[in-house]
Amino acid sequence: MAKRARDPNRLELLQGTLDLLVLQTLRWGPQHGYGIALAIQAGSGDVLRVDTGSLYPALYRLEKQRLIAATWKMSENNQRTRVYRLTAAGRRQLVSERSRWQMLVDAMSGVLSKPGEEGA
Question: Is pTM, for the whole model, over 0.85?
Answer without folding.
Answer: no
